[in-house]
């Protein structure tokens, strides 16, 4: 295992003061670091960058988040298991389902989590625009997270169908200038409203949406349609 400086104070800023949790996160970061030598799992090439930029920066925005026992969350476009694995480690009485269309990344997450004894996650290969129509996943999750997966228009359309009524969608972004009239209308069509951040988010690097009504059955649409409509927002 590559040597790391003392990260205790850094983990504590993100609300992780339990030594076992810190150790487990560092071990998973090492799994990413070693796997990255075989194929491009993440653009972060040093172990310290993986811990700081993937783990700490995933936990900081939701430092104040209340996650009751039994909470079911989804991580869409999880990549190397971010933010799903750090969340699963911190909130060990929750259960996470991590989605990605890349077989190699999903295989890595399942192998690494099994090896480290992270038992409250399952990684599923598939396209979210298809999985969001499946009975097993639609209207099923208390929380949905997505980090660096897509623009607001696309991420909300892919995330909303997965949520239960009153569930929360966490988008790791501070690009609130995107929240124009076109997006607000889209949110309404999806059954989403913009949530007050003050009691949930530690800083401004996140936009949170609450599902207030059922998402119309036509969503999510084909990704080609979503992308085409998203471009209109940016035009």
What does this entry look like structurally?
The protein is an alpha/beta fold and 235 residues long. It has one domain (69-234): Vaccinia Virus protein VP39 (Rossmann fold). It has nine helices and seven strands, in the order αααβαβαβαβαβαββα. The chain has helices at 8-13, 19-35, 47-59, 84-90, 103-116, 128-131, 152-159, 181-190, 223-234, and strands spanning 72-76, 95-100, 121-125, 141-147, 163-172, 192-194, 207-211. The protein has a seven-stranded mixed β-sheet, with helices on both faces. It is globular and about 45 Å long.
Q: How far is it from the N-terminal to the C-terminal residue, by CA?
A: 48 Å
SS-based class: alpha/beta
Uncertain segments: none
Strand order of the largest sheet: 3-2-1-4-5-7-6
Sum up the overall morphology in one term. Answer: globular
CATH homologous superfamily annotation: Vaccinia Virus protein VP39
CATH class: Alpha Beta
CATH T-level fold name: Rossmann fold
The largest sheet is: 7 strands, mixed
Radius of gyration: 17 Å
Tell me roughly what share of residues is in helical segments.
25-40%
Q: Number of DSSP helices? A: 9
| Total beta strands | 7
Order of helices and strands: HHHEHEHEHEHEHEEH
Quaternary structure of the protein: single chain
Q: What's the mean pLDDT score?
A: 91
Strand content: 15-25%
What would a concise description of this structure say?
The chain is an alpha/beta fold.
């Amino acid at each position: 295992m590559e040597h790391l400086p003392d990260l205790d104070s850094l983990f504590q800023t993100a609300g992780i003061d339990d030594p076992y949790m810190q150790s487990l996160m560092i071990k998973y970061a090492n799994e990413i670091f070693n796997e990255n030598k075989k194929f491009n799992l993440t653009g972060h090439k040093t172990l310290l960058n993986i811990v700081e930029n993937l783990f700490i920066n995933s936990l900081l925005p939701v430092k104040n988040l209340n996650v009751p026992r039994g909470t079911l969350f989804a991580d869409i476009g999880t990549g190397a298991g971010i933010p799903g694995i750090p969340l699963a480690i911190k909130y060990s009485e929750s259960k996470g389902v991590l989605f990605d269309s890349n077989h190699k990344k999903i295989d890595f997450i399942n192998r690494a989590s099994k090896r480290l004894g992270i038992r409250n996650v399952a990684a599923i290969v598939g396209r979210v625009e298809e999985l969001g129509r499946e009975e097993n996943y639609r209207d099923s999750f208390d929380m949905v997270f997505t980090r660096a997966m897509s623009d607001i228009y696309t991420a909300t359309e892919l995330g909303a169908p997965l949520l239960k009524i009153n569930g929360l969608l966490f988008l790791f972004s501070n690009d609130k200038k995107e929240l124009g009239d076109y997006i607000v209308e889209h949110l309404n069509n999806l059954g989403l409203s913009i949530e007050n951040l003050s009691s949930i988010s530690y800083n401004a690097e996140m936009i949170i949406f609450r599902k207030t009504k059922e998402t119309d059955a036509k969503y999510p649409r084909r990704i080609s349609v979503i992308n085409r409509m998203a471009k209109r927002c940016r035009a």
